[in-house]
Write a structure and sequence with these properties.
Blueprint: H1 3-33, H2 39-70
Helix pairs in contact: 1-2
Length: 73
């Protein structure tokens, strides 16, 4: 791949992954918030889902950066 094409692909992949992660997070938080359980029981699920979703997003970002740097040479 050309350097410009690779950079553009990585940039847009990161943007799309970020939007997907945010929308997934909103959907999960909304579904947890609409349950009839009290807040004290909902909080661990909110924190856990937030950490999981954005942890996976961070891993994907790091993987894309690593791939980009390996192909940069």
């Amino acid at each position: 791949m050309k350097k410009e094409t690779l950079l553009l692909t990585v940039t847009w992949t990161k943007r799309v992954l970020g939007v997907i992660a945010f929308l997934l997070w909103v959907a999960v938080i909304f579904s947890i918030a609409t349950s009839s359980a009290p807040f004290a029981e909902q909080a661990p699920y909110c924190m856990g889902s937030t950490m999981l979703i954005f942890g996976l997003l961070t891993a994907a970002y790091k993987g894309l950066d690593y791939w980009h740097l390996q192909n940069k040479v």
